[in-house]
Write the C-alpha coordinates for this entry.
Amino acid sequence: MTRPVEVEFTEFVAGRGPALLRAAYALTGEEHAAHDLVQTALAKAFVRWRHIRTGPEQYVRRIMYNSHISAWRSFRRREVPVADVPDRAATGDAGGSTDLRLALRDALRRLPPRQRAIVVLRFLEDVSVEETARILGCRVGTVGSQTSRALAKLRAVFHELEREAVR
Amino acid sequence: MTDVDSALRGAIRELTEDVHVRADLASTAMASGRRLRSRRRLRTSLAAAVAVAAVAVGTPILVGRPPDPAAGPPPAPPRTTLPEAPEVPGAAELPELVGADPGSLHFDVDGAAVPGLKSTRWESTTEGEWLFLSVDQTRISVHLPAPGRANRAARTPVETTFLAIGGRPATLDRVEIASPGAEARGLWFWQLRWKPVDRLEVMVAATDHSGDLVVTVARALRLDRAQQCPQPVRAAAAPVGTRLERCSIALDASGAWLPDSSFSIVAPMPLGSVQVTVGEPPAGRPANRRVDGWAASWSDESDMLIVYDYIGQSSLTVMGESEETVTAFVRGLWLPGDPRDVRSWSRPL
Protein backbone atom coordinates (compact mmCIF):
# COMPACT_ATOMS: atom_id res chain seq x y z
CA MET A 1 0.00 0.00 0.00
CA THR A 2 1.36 3.43 -0.96
CA ARG A 3 2.22 5.74 1.93
CA PRO A 4 0.80 9.25 1.83
CA VAL A 5 3.08 11.75 0.13
CA GLU A 6 2.91 14.04 3.16
CA VAL A 7 4.30 11.33 5.46
CA GLU A 8 7.14 10.44 3.10
CA PHE A 9 7.97 14.09 2.54
CA THR A 10 7.96 14.96 6.25
CA GLU A 11 10.27 12.04 7.01
CA PHE A 12 12.58 13.10 4.21
CA VAL A 13 12.80 16.67 5.51
CA ALA A 14 13.39 15.45 9.07
CA GLY A 15 16.22 13.22 7.90
CA ARG A 16 17.91 15.28 5.23
CA GLY A 17 16.80 18.82 6.07
CA PRO A 18 19.80 19.64 8.28
CA ALA A 19 22.32 18.59 5.62
CA LEU A 20 20.47 20.53 2.93
CA LEU A 21 20.29 23.58 5.16
CA ARG A 22 24.00 23.46 5.94
CA ALA A 23 24.77 23.37 2.23
CA ALA A 24 22.35 26.23 1.62
CA TYR A 25 23.97 28.27 4.37
CA ALA A 26 27.40 27.70 2.85
CA LEU A 27 25.97 28.83 -0.50
CA THR A 28 24.17 31.95 0.71
CA GLY A 29 26.09 32.92 3.84
CA GLU A 30 22.86 33.95 5.58
CA GLU A 31 20.51 31.82 7.64
CA HIS A 32 17.28 33.41 6.38
CA ALA A 33 18.38 33.13 2.77
CA ALA A 34 19.43 29.53 3.37
CA HIS A 35 15.98 28.63 4.74
CA ASP A 36 14.33 30.36 1.79
CA LEU A 37 16.52 28.46 -0.66
CA VAL A 38 15.83 25.07 0.94
CA GLN A 39 12.13 25.75 1.31
CA THR A 40 11.80 26.79 -2.34
CA ALA A 41 13.59 23.65 -3.50
CA LEU A 42 11.51 21.44 -1.20
CA ALA A 43 8.27 23.05 -2.38
CA LYS A 44 9.14 22.33 -6.01
CA ALA A 45 10.10 18.76 -5.10
CA PHE A 46 6.86 18.24 -3.16
CA VAL A 47 4.83 19.15 -6.26
CA ARG A 48 6.51 16.34 -8.22
CA TRP A 49 7.21 13.96 -5.35
CA ARG A 50 5.57 10.94 -6.94
CA HIS A 51 7.33 11.53 -10.27
CA ILE A 52 10.89 11.99 -9.03
CA ARG A 53 12.91 9.17 -10.52
CA THR A 54 16.45 10.03 -9.45
CA GLY A 55 15.91 10.02 -5.69
CA PRO A 56 14.48 12.96 -3.78
CA GLU A 57 17.69 14.20 -2.20
CA GLN A 58 19.53 14.40 -5.50
CA TYR A 59 16.51 16.12 -7.04
CA VAL A 60 16.18 18.68 -4.25
CA ARG A 61 19.90 19.35 -4.26
CA ARG A 62 19.91 19.95 -8.00
CA ILE A 63 17.04 22.43 -7.73
CA MET A 64 18.70 24.13 -4.79
CA TYR A 65 22.08 24.65 -6.41
CA ASN A 66 20.64 25.76 -9.74
CA SER A 67 18.15 28.08 -8.07
CA HIS A 68 21.00 29.63 -6.14
CA ILE A 69 22.99 30.29 -9.30
CA SER A 70 19.92 31.60 -11.15
CA ALA A 71 18.86 33.82 -8.28
CA TRP A 72 22.33 35.25 -8.06
CA ARG A 73 22.18 36.11 -11.73
CA SER A 74 18.90 37.90 -11.34
CA PHE A 75 20.02 39.93 -8.36
CA ARG A 76 23.66 40.51 -9.13
CA ARG A 77 22.89 43.73 -10.98
CA ARG A 78 22.08 45.16 -7.58
CA GLU A 79 25.67 45.27 -6.48
CA VAL A 80 25.96 45.16 -2.73
CA PRO A 81 25.89 48.81 -1.69
CA VAL A 82 29.31 49.83 -0.55
CA ALA A 83 27.73 51.36 2.51
CA ASP A 84 26.79 47.95 3.85
CA VAL A 85 29.91 47.55 5.87
CA PRO A 86 30.00 44.07 7.36
CA ASP A 87 29.92 43.86 11.11
CA ARG A 88 33.36 43.92 12.57
CA ALA A 89 34.78 40.52 13.30
CA ALA A 90 34.66 39.46 16.91
CA THR A 91 37.89 39.73 18.80
CA GLY A 92 40.12 36.95 17.56
CA ASP A 93 40.30 33.93 19.83
CA ALA A 94 43.53 32.26 20.80
CA GLY A 95 43.58 29.87 17.86
CA GLY A 96 42.33 32.45 15.42
CA SER A 97 39.45 30.17 14.39
CA THR A 98 36.86 32.95 14.63
CA ASP A 99 38.89 35.18 12.37
CA LEU A 100 39.41 32.27 10.04
CA ARG A 101 35.72 31.41 9.93
CA LEU A 102 34.69 35.00 9.27
CA ALA A 103 37.37 35.42 6.66
CA LEU A 104 36.31 32.19 5.00
CA ARG A 105 32.66 33.21 5.02
CA ASP A 106 33.55 36.50 3.36
CA ALA A 107 35.84 34.77 0.89
CA LEU A 108 33.12 32.24 0.02
CA ARG A 109 30.65 35.06 -0.53
CA ARG A 110 33.04 36.73 -2.92
CA LEU A 111 33.37 33.63 -5.09
CA PRO A 112 31.27 33.58 -8.27
CA PRO A 113 28.14 31.48 -7.68
CA ARG A 114 29.22 28.46 -9.67
CA GLN A 115 32.63 28.31 -8.01
CA ARG A 116 30.94 28.63 -4.62
CA ALA A 117 28.50 25.84 -5.50
CA ILE A 118 31.36 23.60 -6.59
CA VAL A 119 33.32 24.25 -3.39
CA VAL A 120 30.28 23.45 -1.24
CA LEU A 121 29.49 20.28 -3.19
CA ARG A 122 33.06 19.02 -3.18
CA PHE A 123 34.24 20.12 0.27
CA LEU A 124 31.11 20.14 2.42
CA GLU A 125 29.00 17.46 0.81
CA ASP A 126 31.86 15.25 -0.42
CA VAL A 127 30.23 14.86 -3.81
CA SER A 128 32.36 13.39 -6.61
CA VAL A 129 33.52 15.48 -9.54
CA GLU A 130 31.23 13.56 -11.89
CA GLU A 131 28.18 14.01 -9.67
CA THR A 132 29.01 17.70 -9.17
CA ALA A 133 29.04 18.12 -12.94
CA ARG A 134 25.69 16.33 -13.22
CA ILE A 135 24.07 18.47 -10.52
CA LEU A 136 25.29 21.74 -12.01
CA GLY A 137 24.75 20.72 -15.61
CA CYS A 138 28.32 21.35 -16.71
CA ARG A 139 31.30 19.34 -17.93
CA VAL A 140 33.63 17.41 -15.63
CA GLY A 141 36.53 19.51 -16.91
CA THR A 142 34.69 22.66 -15.90
CA VAL A 143 34.32 21.36 -12.35
CA GLY A 144 38.07 20.76 -12.21
CA SER A 145 39.08 24.15 -13.55
CA GLN A 146 36.55 26.03 -11.43
CA THR A 147 37.63 24.14 -8.31
CA SER A 148 41.24 25.14 -8.92
CA ARG A 149 40.32 28.78 -9.32
CA ALA A 150 38.12 28.81 -6.23
CA LEU A 151 40.75 27.11 -4.09
CA ALA A 152 43.40 29.54 -5.26
CA LYS A 153 41.25 32.43 -4.04
CA LEU A 154 40.44 30.76 -0.72
CA ARG A 155 44.07 29.82 -0.14
CA ALA A 156 44.99 33.46 -0.59
CA VAL A 157 42.74 34.29 2.37
CA PHE A 158 44.52 31.71 4.50
CA HIS A 159 47.93 32.98 3.55
CA GLU A 160 46.89 36.56 4.26
CA LEU A 161 45.74 35.54 7.73
CA GLU A 162 48.97 33.67 8.27
CA ARG A 163 50.99 36.73 7.31
CA GLU A 164 48.94 38.90 9.65
CA ALA A 165 49.41 36.41 12.47
CA VAL A 166 53.20 36.75 12.35
CA ARG A 167 53.20 40.54 12.19
CA MET B 1 45.23 17.05 -0.37
CA THR B 2 47.35 19.83 1.13
CA ASP B 3 47.18 21.10 4.71
CA VAL B 4 45.45 24.21 3.43
CA ASP B 5 42.82 22.10 1.65
CA SER B 6 42.21 20.12 4.83
CA ALA B 7 41.92 23.33 6.81
CA LEU B 8 39.48 24.66 4.26
CA ARG B 9 37.34 21.55 4.47
CA GLY B 10 37.28 21.78 8.25
CA ALA B 11 36.54 25.49 8.22
CA ILE B 12 33.62 25.14 5.80
CA ARG B 13 32.12 22.43 8.00
CA GLU B 14 32.66 24.49 11.12
CA LEU B 15 31.03 27.45 9.38
CA THR B 16 27.75 25.58 8.95
CA GLU B 17 27.63 23.75 12.28
CA ASP B 18 25.50 26.27 14.09
CA VAL B 19 22.68 26.35 11.54
CA HIS B 20 19.43 24.81 12.81
CA VAL B 21 16.44 23.64 10.85
CA ARG B 22 13.18 25.34 11.68
CA ALA B 23 10.60 22.92 13.08
CA ASP B 24 8.03 23.94 10.48
CA LEU B 25 10.28 23.50 7.41
CA ALA B 26 8.38 20.47 6.05
CA SER B 27 4.92 21.94 6.64
CA THR B 28 5.76 25.33 5.13
CA ALA B 29 7.41 23.65 2.13
CA MET B 30 4.30 21.52 1.59
CA ALA B 31 2.08 24.59 1.84
CA SER B 32 4.30 26.44 -0.68
CA GLY B 33 4.23 23.41 -2.96
CA ARG B 34 0.43 23.29 -2.89
CA ARG B 35 0.23 26.99 -3.76
CA LEU B 36 2.74 26.45 -6.58
CA ARG B 37 0.68 23.58 -7.96
CA SER B 38 -2.52 25.65 -7.85
CA ARG B 39 -0.84 28.54 -9.64
CA ARG B 40 0.52 26.25 -12.35
CA ARG B 41 -2.91 24.75 -12.97
CA LEU B 42 -4.45 28.21 -13.16
CA ARG B 43 -1.70 29.41 -15.49
CA THR B 44 -2.13 26.48 -17.83
CA SER B 45 -5.84 27.07 -18.19
CA LEU B 46 -5.46 30.84 -18.56
CA ALA B 47 -2.61 30.48 -21.06
CA ALA B 48 -4.79 28.24 -23.19
CA ALA B 49 -7.63 30.76 -23.05
CA VAL B 50 -5.28 33.64 -23.94
CA ALA B 51 -3.82 31.68 -26.85
CA VAL B 52 -7.28 31.01 -28.27
CA ALA B 53 -8.25 34.66 -27.85
CA ALA B 54 -5.03 35.85 -29.49
CA VAL B 55 -5.61 33.68 -32.55
CA ALA B 56 -9.20 34.86 -32.74
CA VAL B 57 -8.28 38.56 -32.82
CA GLY B 58 -5.08 38.13 -34.83
CA THR B 59 -2.62 39.50 -32.26
CA PRO B 60 0.54 40.61 -34.11
CA ILE B 61 3.76 38.92 -33.08
CA LEU B 62 6.77 41.22 -33.11
CA VAL B 63 10.08 39.41 -32.94
CA GLY B 64 13.27 41.43 -33.05
CA ARG B 65 11.73 43.86 -35.48
CA PRO B 66 13.09 47.40 -35.17
CA PRO B 67 10.79 50.27 -36.08
CA ASP B 68 11.26 52.19 -39.29
CA PRO B 69 14.09 54.67 -38.54
CA ALA B 70 12.48 57.23 -40.80
CA ALA B 71 9.42 57.32 -38.57
CA GLY B 72 11.24 58.67 -35.52
CA PRO B 73 12.43 62.20 -34.76
CA PRO B 74 16.03 63.12 -35.63
CA PRO B 75 18.46 62.25 -32.82
CA ALA B 76 19.26 65.08 -30.43
CA PRO B 77 22.91 65.84 -29.65
CA PRO B 78 24.06 63.90 -26.54
CA ARG B 79 23.72 65.92 -23.39
CA THR B 80 23.18 63.21 -20.80
CA THR B 81 25.07 59.94 -20.32
CA LEU B 82 21.97 57.91 -21.13
CA PRO B 83 19.20 59.02 -23.52
CA GLU B 84 17.59 62.12 -22.11
CA ALA B 85 14.12 61.87 -20.54
CA PRO B 86 12.45 64.86 -22.19
CA GLU B 87 10.31 67.08 -20.02
CA VAL B 88 11.08 65.04 -16.89
CA PRO B 89 12.47 67.14 -14.02
CA GLY B 90 15.70 66.16 -12.26
CA ALA B 91 15.80 65.02 -8.64
CA ALA B 92 16.80 68.47 -7.42
CA GLU B 93 13.69 70.00 -8.96
CA LEU B 94 11.21 67.32 -7.86
CA PRO B 95 12.68 64.88 -5.28
CA GLU B 96 9.41 62.96 -5.13
CA LEU B 97 10.16 61.51 -8.57
CA VAL B 98 13.12 59.46 -7.30
CA GLY B 99 12.06 55.80 -7.51
CA ALA B 100 8.60 56.75 -8.79
CA ASP B 101 9.33 55.38 -12.27
CA PRO B 102 12.07 52.75 -12.70
CA GLY B 103 12.18 53.59 -16.42
CA SER B 104 13.87 56.89 -15.57
CA LEU B 105 16.85 58.11 -13.59
CA HIS B 106 16.53 61.57 -12.15
CA PHE B 107 20.20 62.44 -12.09
CA ASP B 108 23.35 62.15 -14.18
CA VAL B 109 27.10 62.39 -13.74
CA ASP B 110 29.55 64.48 -15.70
CA GLY B 111 31.99 61.71 -16.65
CA ALA B 112 34.61 64.19 -17.87
CA ALA B 113 34.89 65.51 -14.31
CA VAL B 114 35.85 62.07 -12.93
CA PRO B 115 39.43 61.27 -14.01
CA GLY B 116 40.12 57.58 -14.59
CA LEU B 117 36.46 56.67 -15.09
CA LYS B 118 36.21 53.22 -16.68
CA SER B 119 32.54 52.34 -16.57
CA THR B 120 29.17 53.18 -15.07
CA ARG B 121 26.25 50.99 -14.05
CA TRP B 122 22.87 52.62 -13.59
CA GLU B 123 19.96 51.13 -11.74
CA SER B 124 16.51 52.43 -11.00
CA THR B 125 13.97 50.68 -8.78
CA THR B 126 10.94 51.59 -6.76
CA GLU B 127 13.26 51.82 -3.74
CA GLY B 128 15.59 54.39 -5.22
CA GLU B 129 18.20 55.08 -7.86
CA TRP B 130 21.83 53.95 -7.95
CA LEU B 131 24.95 54.66 -9.93
CA PHE B 132 28.05 52.49 -9.60
CA LEU B 133 31.26 53.87 -11.06
CA SER B 134 34.51 52.04 -11.72
CA VAL B 135 37.42 54.43 -11.40
CA ASP B 136 40.77 52.74 -11.86
CA GLN B 137 40.61 49.97 -9.22
CA THR B 138 37.96 51.61 -7.04
CA ARG B 139 34.19 51.13 -7.03
CA ILE B 140 32.08 54.10 -6.01
CA SER B 141 28.35 53.94 -5.33
CA VAL B 142 25.91 56.81 -5.56
CA HIS B 143 22.50 56.30 -3.97
CA LEU B 144 19.40 58.45 -4.11
CA PRO B 145 16.76 56.75 -1.94
CA ALA B 146 13.11 57.07 -2.83
CA PRO B 147 11.11 59.29 -0.47
CA GLY B 148 10.57 57.55 2.83
CA ARG B 149 13.44 55.13 2.26
CA ALA B 150 16.30 56.87 3.97
CA ASN B 151 19.84 55.68 3.51
CA ARG B 152 20.84 53.22 6.16
CA ALA B 153 23.54 54.66 8.35
CA ALA B 154 26.86 52.86 8.38
CA ARG B 155 28.63 52.14 11.64
CA THR B 156 29.99 54.89 13.81
CA PRO B 157 32.71 56.77 11.93
CA VAL B 158 36.15 57.20 13.38
CA GLU B 159 36.34 60.65 11.82
CA THR B 160 33.87 63.11 10.29
CA THR B 161 34.83 66.01 8.05
CA PHE B 162 32.42 68.84 7.27
CA LEU B 163 32.51 70.33 3.78
CA ALA B 164 30.23 71.86 1.14
CA ILE B 165 28.87 70.26 -2.04
CA GLY B 166 27.11 72.66 -4.38
CA GLY B 167 26.93 75.20 -1.58
CA ARG B 168 25.12 72.81 0.76
CA PRO B 169 26.66 71.34 3.94
CA ALA B 170 27.88 67.76 3.65
CA THR B 171 29.56 65.25 5.94
CA LEU B 172 32.36 62.92 4.95
CA ASP B 173 32.68 59.94 7.32
CA ARG B 174 35.68 57.67 7.59
CA VAL B 175 34.62 54.24 8.84
CA GLU B 176 36.63 51.18 9.81
CA ILE B 177 36.35 48.10 7.60
CA ALA B 178 36.00 44.63 9.07
CA SER B 179 37.76 42.94 6.16
CA PRO B 180 41.01 41.27 7.25
CA GLY B 181 44.06 43.30 6.37
CA ALA B 182 42.12 46.38 5.22
CA GLU B 183 43.59 48.61 7.88
CA ALA B 184 47.09 47.40 7.13
CA ARG B 185 46.55 48.26 3.46
CA GLY B 186 45.35 51.72 4.46
CA LEU B 187 41.80 51.13 3.20
CA TRP B 188 38.79 52.81 4.77
CA PHE B 189 35.13 53.03 4.00
CA TRP B 190 34.22 56.60 3.03
CA GLN B 191 30.71 57.91 2.85
CA LEU B 192 29.64 61.38 1.86
CA ARG B 193 26.10 62.51 2.67
CA TRP B 194 24.29 65.70 1.92
CA LYS B 195 20.91 67.15 1.08
CA PRO B 196 21.17 69.10 -2.18
CA VAL B 197 17.58 70.29 -1.61
CA ASP B 198 14.98 69.59 1.03
CA ARG B 199 13.47 66.07 0.83
CA LEU B 200 16.41 64.72 -1.19
CA GLU B 201 19.35 62.91 0.34
CA VAL B 202 22.36 61.73 -1.63
CA MET B 203 25.09 59.38 -0.49
CA VAL B 204 28.35 58.66 -2.28
CA ALA B 205 30.48 55.87 -0.86
CA ALA B 206 33.63 53.89 -1.61
CA THR B 207 36.31 51.78 -0.04
CA ASP B 208 39.50 53.66 -0.74
CA HIS B 209 42.70 55.07 0.74
CA SER B 210 41.28 58.59 0.93
CA GLY B 211 37.95 60.35 0.61
CA ASP B 212 39.05 62.43 -2.37
CA LEU B 213 37.32 60.27 -4.96
CA VAL B 214 33.89 60.31 -3.32
CA VAL B 215 34.12 64.11 -3.09
CA THR B 216 35.10 64.31 -6.78
CA VAL B 217 32.16 62.10 -7.80
CA ALA B 218 29.74 64.03 -5.60
CA ARG B 219 30.78 67.28 -7.24
CA ALA B 220 30.37 65.70 -10.71
CA LEU B 221 26.75 64.69 -10.10
CA ARG B 222 24.07 66.50 -12.09
CA LEU B 223 20.82 66.45 -10.16
CA ASP B 224 19.13 68.82 -12.59
CA ARG B 225 18.93 66.24 -15.37
CA ALA B 226 16.72 63.22 -15.99
CA GLN B 227 17.53 60.27 -18.18
CA GLN B 228 15.80 57.21 -19.52
CA CYS B 229 16.93 53.75 -18.45
CA PRO B 230 17.32 52.35 -21.97
CA GLN B 231 17.26 48.67 -22.87
CA PRO B 232 18.20 46.88 -26.10
CA VAL B 233 14.79 45.18 -26.13
CA ARG B 234 11.34 46.59 -25.57
CA ALA B 235 8.36 44.70 -24.16
CA ALA B 236 5.94 46.32 -26.55
CA ALA B 237 3.36 43.55 -26.37
CA ALA B 238 3.17 43.36 -22.55
CA PRO B 239 -0.44 43.23 -21.37
CA VAL B 240 -2.28 46.22 -20.00
CA GLY B 241 -1.53 46.68 -16.31
CA THR B 242 2.11 45.61 -16.59
CA ARG B 243 4.45 47.72 -14.49
CA LEU B 244 8.22 48.13 -14.50
CA GLU B 245 9.92 47.22 -11.21
CA ARG B 246 13.61 47.58 -11.97
CA CYS B 247 15.88 48.66 -14.80
CA SER B 248 19.66 48.47 -15.05
CA ILE B 249 22.26 49.17 -17.71
CA ALA B 250 26.06 49.33 -17.82
CA LEU B 251 28.21 51.47 -20.11
CA ASP B 252 31.91 51.93 -20.63
CA ALA B 253 33.56 55.33 -20.35
CA SER B 254 32.82 56.15 -24.00
CA GLY B 255 29.11 55.52 -23.52
CA ALA B 256 29.06 52.17 -25.32
CA TRP B 257 27.00 49.28 -23.92
CA LEU B 258 29.21 46.81 -22.03
CA PRO B 259 26.94 44.68 -22.74
CA ASP B 260 24.91 43.87 -19.68
CA SER B 261 21.44 45.17 -19.04
CA SER B 262 18.33 43.93 -17.34
CA PHE B 263 14.85 44.81 -16.22
CA SER B 264 12.02 43.28 -14.22
CA ILE B 265 8.32 43.68 -14.78
CA VAL B 266 5.21 42.56 -12.97
CA ALA B 267 2.29 41.77 -15.25
CA PRO B 268 -1.20 40.45 -14.60
CA MET B 269 -1.40 36.67 -14.59
CA PRO B 270 -0.71 34.48 -16.42
CA LEU B 271 2.48 36.37 -17.27
CA GLY B 272 3.29 37.39 -13.69
CA SER B 273 6.82 38.42 -12.70
CA VAL B 274 9.42 38.43 -15.47
CA GLN B 275 13.14 39.22 -15.25
CA VAL B 276 14.96 39.97 -18.49
CA THR B 277 18.72 40.10 -18.98
CA VAL B 278 20.60 40.78 -22.19
CA GLY B 279 24.27 39.93 -22.02
CA GLU B 280 26.40 36.92 -21.27
CA PRO B 281 24.25 33.80 -20.80
CA PRO B 282 24.52 31.52 -17.77
CA ALA B 283 27.15 28.86 -18.37
CA GLY B 284 26.60 25.14 -18.72
CA ARG B 285 23.15 25.22 -20.29
CA PRO B 286 23.22 23.74 -23.79
CA ALA B 287 20.48 24.63 -26.25
CA ASN B 288 17.59 22.18 -26.04
CA ARG B 289 15.01 23.82 -28.31
CA ARG B 290 14.45 26.62 -30.81
CA VAL B 291 12.36 29.75 -30.37
CA ASP B 292 11.41 31.26 -33.72
CA GLY B 293 14.66 30.03 -35.25
CA TRP B 294 16.95 30.99 -32.36
CA ALA B 295 18.80 28.30 -30.45
CA ALA B 296 17.39 28.35 -26.93
CA SER B 297 17.47 26.56 -23.61
CA TRP B 298 14.64 26.13 -21.14
CA SER B 299 15.16 24.95 -17.57
CA ASP B 300 12.18 23.73 -15.51
CA GLU B 301 14.18 23.95 -12.31
CA SER B 302 14.96 27.64 -12.62
CA ASP B 303 12.02 28.64 -14.87
CA MET B 304 14.54 30.28 -17.17
CA LEU B 305 14.63 30.60 -20.96
CA ILE B 306 17.90 31.51 -22.66
CA VAL B 307 17.81 32.62 -26.29
CA TYR B 308 21.35 32.49 -27.61
CA ASP B 309 22.98 35.18 -29.77
CA TYR B 310 19.83 37.29 -29.67
CA ILE B 311 21.66 40.55 -30.26
CA GLY B 312 25.05 39.88 -31.82
CA GLN B 313 26.78 37.57 -29.36
CA SER B 314 24.63 38.70 -26.44
CA SER B 315 21.97 36.31 -25.26
CA LEU B 316 18.53 36.98 -23.89
CA THR B 317 17.79 35.37 -20.53
CA VAL B 318 14.22 35.53 -19.28
CA MET B 319 12.99 34.15 -15.97
CA GLY B 320 9.25 33.85 -15.47
CA GLU B 321 6.41 31.65 -14.38
CA SER B 322 6.37 28.95 -17.03
CA GLU B 323 7.81 28.06 -20.41
CA GLU B 324 4.57 28.95 -22.16
CA THR B 325 4.32 32.45 -20.74
CA VAL B 326 8.03 33.20 -21.04
CA THR B 327 8.16 32.05 -24.66
CA ALA B 328 5.11 34.15 -25.52
CA PHE B 329 6.73 37.12 -23.78
CA VAL B 330 9.95 36.69 -25.78
CA ARG B 331 7.92 36.61 -29.00
CA GLY B 332 6.46 39.97 -28.05
CA LEU B 333 9.85 41.66 -27.67
CA TRP B 334 11.32 43.90 -30.31
CA LEU B 335 14.45 45.96 -30.79
CA PRO B 336 13.77 49.65 -30.24
CA GLY B 337 16.75 50.95 -32.20
CA ASP B 338 20.23 50.25 -33.51
CA PRO B 339 21.62 47.41 -31.34
CA ARG B 340 25.04 49.12 -31.39
CA ASP B 341 23.84 52.53 -30.28
CA VAL B 342 22.50 52.92 -26.73
CA ARG B 343 21.27 56.40 -27.52
CA SER B 344 18.80 54.97 -30.03
CA TRP B 345 17.23 52.70 -27.39
CA SER B 346 14.35 53.53 -25.12
CA ARG B 347 12.93 52.40 -21.81
CA PRO B 348 11.81 48.75 -21.81
CA LEU B 349 8.13 49.39 -21.20
Notes: The domain at 1-82 of chain A is CATH 1.10.1740 (Rna Polymerase Sigma Factor; Chain: A). Chain A touches chain B through 73 residues (CB under 8 Å). Chain A has a mean pLDDT of 75.
